[in-house]
Specification:
Blueprint: E1 2-3, H1 5-21, H2 24-44, E2 52-57, E3 60-62, E4 67-74, E5 81-87, E6 95-96, E7 99-104, E8 109-116, E9 122-125, E10 129-134, E11 140-146, E12 151-155, H3 164-174, E13 188-194, H4 206-210, E14 216-221, E15 227-233, E16 241-242, E17 245-246, H5 247-264, E18 268-274, E19 278-282, H6 290-298, H7 310-320, E20 326-330, H8 335-342, H9 346-350, E21 354-360, H10 363-369, H11 375-400, E22 404-408, H12 413-426
Parallel strand pairs: 3-12, 15-18, 15-20, 20-21, 21-22
Antiparallel strand pairs: 1-11, 2-4, 4-8, 5-7, 5-10, 6-8, 9-12, 10-11, 13-14, 16-17, 18-19
Helix pairs in contact: 1-2, 3-5, 3-12, 5-6, 5-12, 10-11
């Protein structure tokens, strides 16, 4: 049984009547009247146990957007259901409305809509659906809960999607409508065409020209069907927040843009997330499915407050990618972590693969380095300049060892990484 605010109001009114009359019969009469009204409401309320509750709607929502779920309440009984339905979700799911008034005639069905606006990534499981069925007087009623299983996966946002048309246009210049006359180390021969003023004379095909009246030049296209292995470092450095977001979230956004671009370019993409153990991997997905598979795999990833195992990371890379490929490692250019973890493993990685390190730079360092005007600001400037110098030194060390480095702020990292990939592809260095 469940009592409502009306029952409390009726009890307060009855108390005032008893205080005014100050007699025992008045007390008994008021109590009896309230009890009879409550009992009648409970007996006339529609039963809750016989209700059938089911869910439907979205199963995947991208972080920063909203999704809609439907809650269907079927009333097979002989009495109309009048009352309230509470759809329980975790607070971070952002479910609205949490409660809804419902009126379902006997033998009919009602559908309620719940909007989810999640505040974090991951999987959200629906809780119980609590139904409170009230009587005609709405003083009291019956209450019960039903299981209606449903889960929603909140995917990472893909804010860098806005850069994709621009990068695809550049990709088409490399391989598509405009064939390149500049041959990279691994570029593939595409076709022959007539020479026009301005073409590189080194591209002239003299044998073909000898068989024809016109001078013919060779055109090349970037290699296709190459492999890219994206490695996310989910250790403690990935938990640091830059511009309000964890480094891991920014790395995911850049990885999604690279995946979308590489799959359009005809390359295969795999994913590995590791710290002291492998958190997730996506290997062997088709080009049409890789973006969805990676987005789903990233949904449940969180940075762990532990030091990453660079040895495990290197062994996993060598175990997954047995043939030469481009390894894109998302990590922080933390001097201690790089010198003790990554640097000793670089020779074995670069001997078999092309290694590119992508890092999220903190724009706050530039602001600190430019600060002046007070003693505290000067100390901040010195600290910022030292941090920038250490990152630049680590980047230079990595480049001297044959590693490509992309170090950019969160708003520029996805586009910078995509440009680095296109440059490698155009030069035939994948």
């Amino acid at each position: 049984m469940a009592l409502t605010g009306r029952a409390a109001a009726a009890a307060v009114t009855g108390t005032l009547v008893v205080l005014a009359l100050r007699t025992v019969p008045a007390l008994l009469a008021v109590d009896a009247l309230i009890l009879v009204a409550v009992a009648a409401d409970v007996s006339l309320a529609a039963p809750v146990r016989t209700l059938r509750v089911t869910r439907g709607g979205d199963t995947r929502i991208r972080l920063g957007t909203s999704g809609e779920l439907t809650l269907t309440v079927a009333n097979p009984g002989r009495r109309a259901l009048r009352g309230t339905v509470r759809d329980a979700w975790q607070p971070s799911a952002g479910a609205q409305p949490a409660r809804a008034e419902v009126s379902v005639p006997a033998g009919r069905v009602a559908t309620l809509t719940t909007t989810l606006t999640p505040g974090r990534r991951g999987d959200f499981a629906a809780g119980r659906v609590t139904v409170r069925s009230l009587g005609p007087l709405r003083l009291a009623g019956r209450q019960g809960s039903h299981q209606a299983p449903w889960s929603v996966r909140v995917l990472p946002p893909f804010g860098s999607r806005k850069h994709l048309p621009e990068k695809l246009a550049r990709l088409r210049q490399l391989d598509g409508q405009h064939r390149s006359l500049l041959r990279g180390q691994g570029s593939e021969f595409d076709s022959l065409r007539e020479y026009v003023l301005g073409d590189d004379v080194r591209s002239i095909d003299w044998r073909s020209s000898a068989r024809r009246v016109d001078v013919m030049v060779r055109t090349w296209r970037p290699e296709r069907d190459r492999r890219i292995l994206i490695v996310l470092d989910t250790g403690r450095t990935a938990a640091g927040r830059v511009a309000g977001l964890p480094r891991l979230d920014t790395s995911m956004d850049a990885a999604l843009l690279l995946t979308a671009l590489a799959s359009r370019a005809g390359d295969r993409v795999d994913l590995l997330a590791v710290d002291r153990r492998v958190r997730t991997r996506v290997v062997g997905a088709s080009r049409s499915e890789i973006l969805a598979a990676m987005t789903s795999a990233m949904a449940g990833l969180d940075a762990e407050l532990i030091e990453s195992d660079a040895g495990l990371m290197a062994s996993c890379v060598l175990g997954i990618a047995r043939q030469r490929c481009l390894v894109v490692l998302f990590t922080d250019l933390n001097p201690a972590a790089v010198e003790e973890g990554l640097l000793p493993r670089i020779p074995v990685l670069t001997a078999r693969h092309r290694l590119l390190v992508a890092a999220v730079a903190d724009p706050r360092l530039d602001e600190m380095a430019a600060a002046r005007g007070s003693a505290a600001a000067v100390y901040q400037a010195a600290a910022g300049e030292r941090a920038r110098s250490e990152r630049a030194t680590i980047s230079a060390v990595l480049r001297r060892r044959g590693v490509d480095v992309v170090d950019a702020p969160p708003d520029r990292l996805p586009a910078a990484l995509a440009d680095a990939y296109l440059n490698l592809k155009a030069a035939g260095r994948l």
